[in-house]
Amino acid sequence: MPDLLANLGLGFSVALGLQNIALCFLGCLVGTLIGVLPGVGPIATIAMLLPITFGLDPVGALIMLAGIYYGAQYGGSTTAILVNIPGEATSVVTTLDGHQMARQGRAGIALGTAAIASFFAGTVATVLIAALGAPLTKLALIFGPAEYFALMVMGLAFAVVLAHGSVLKAVAMILVGVLFAAVGTDLETGQERMTFGFSFLTDGVDFSVLAMGLFGIAEILRNLDQTETRDVVRERIGRLLPGLADIKQAAPATLRGTAIGAILGILPGNGAVLGPFAAYTIEKKIAKDPRRFGRGAIEGVAGPESANNAGAQTAFIPLLTLGIPPNAVMALMVGAMTIHGIVPGPGVMTKNPNLFWGMIASMWIGNLMLLIINLPLVGVWVRLLKVPYRLMFPAILMFCSVGIYSINSLPTDVMLIGFFGLMGYLLIKFGFEPAPLLLGFVLGKLMEEYLRRSLTLSRGDPMVFLERPVSAVLFIIAFAILAAALLPSLRKGRDEVFTEA
Amino acid sequence: MDAPLDGTSSRRGAVRAPQSLVAGLGLIGLGVFGVWASSDLDYGSLRAIGPGLMPFWLSIGVGICGLALAIAGFTHDGAPLQSFSVRGPVVITLAVLAFAITIRPFVLGGITTPGLGLIVAGPLAIVIAGYAGTEARFLELLTLALFLTAGCMLLFGDLLNLPIPIFPTAVVQAMTGVLPARTLLRIAAGVMALAGLGLLLVQRRSGRREPVDVARHSLTT
Predict the structure, then answer these.
(1) B29 touches A: beta carbon within 8 Å
(2) Which of A59, A224, A228, A454 has the smallest C-beta neighbourhood within 10 Å, fewest atoms?
(3) Domain extent for B70
(4) Minimal-distance CA residue of chain A relative to B141
(5) Is residue B210 part of a domain?
(6) The pTM is what?
């Protein structure tokens, strides 16, 4: 405990530096902005802004990127409540009751509840990261290549279960992702793989290129198909602070939402996305009168909102302690860290305590900032929604192009985002989700490396994965959840959770 | 948000889920392609896995998923094929390509494009991309292009000092020794912003108010 306090003290001393506070603020502001604007998500934004962080010191860079990420989770709820448009995937459920509350003239209370619940969840998640950081890092040190491989297999299994839609399609997407990761020079033998003689493929496909294509450009193409005309009316927002009765109703929901979101967020395989859905389902199940849900129940705002923010932050745990990015945004963080010469994983805490604890402390500061900047700025955010999409997408396209070009100064990278954009569009049209592909791609290189290393160590005996207890347990979990996902009854349950929205 | 999931109305013949059939065939194609592409690589042994082993088995896996999906297309009812638009993808691809080949000299089969820098590539990409939508207006796009490019030039070129070419190579050569690059950049950005303001005023005069189109329900993650 005294250790923890000392560490947090160090963290705050780093995070409260003038530059880092400014960067944290900037990150939160940009994050809220893109959270508010539908059609551009944190993945594309962080990929776009990576080059901007080149000139910063690593702590500041990561503080800013993290701010963008959780700021986006925050901002998405504002538009969900006010105009019934979820800014991000994680705020889809907030539209259900949040917008109803707004229609009943309680928009301000819904916004206030969302903000306070998120802040509470963010605080708890920050403490959780700080508390779990050290023990998990120690755990990571006993991990050998076999355990890492097993852990990543488990992460991908979770990603399959947590993806929307067909299990088969999710598995296919992950395999395609891992296959894409194999393109380029083989690290061990130096042989070129599947490059077809193209020199721009020698180094493999850059992660930010793939991410920006699949999530930036493909998103534009998809939105072009289905823009709808809608008058953005400005609702009366009214009082922001919830009254005592509201707090009484919302507090238990916030606690439950925080717990659910935090646990799901830690899971490798993008559990954070499921958090709000699960929280909403649970609130509805245990409510005395479930009919209130969908008609402006305050628990339907507090629960999912806290879950979404808690999950967004605990997702940093696997990255910072084990070096395994649980979702695409965290994978971009890996990119940002590697650019600055930091290898994500258990070493971060011991070798770069400033970075580790500074980032954690900055998350809490960021959450506080969001609470303060968000509520008074609601009017500005709503006005932003009036920017027509016909002007937004050319801007997004150009920022993507400029951003991706400045990472490697390669025109071929720009062309590749066009290519992957088309691919992402096709995938969406055929009911595939691009998120598991991206996760497979991220983990693919690491997985192959660990697989080969563990088999070399065991002299070619594949039983090594089952003989080592930790790896055996991880494999069993992976297969169990995959098998469970294929069971018809559980599949139905999973579909219910997602179609709740 | 998608088309109705039970394809009962569109059921024709043996194919009960056209979407998963075509998706499956696509995956099989990718799997076959992957096997072919990795066929020249050494598989190695379990003790020392070669570079070809993972790509080979992954491609097989992709193919098997594809096969299962394709079969499901005959045995289970599922979604029909969704409609594709051509305009969006084609125009967006053109915009991206235009940016890629004008930002700096690019060799394409013996032809070298002139490097025109961000000052040309940016507006080009924005104006072309704008026509992917059905309600593109040239003046509006041009205004946007002027402002955004000026902003990007200042942000990326001046403030962040990233090595992105701003001006056409010819201009850079001509201006070397005459004006410092940074001054030139600031002047150009200022001129562009002023031109943008001018255009904005012109449009304001003939302005009309219309309902706003908003991207809907996007599952951006």
Answers:
(1) no
(2) A228
(3) 7-75
(4) A391
(5) no
(6) 0.85
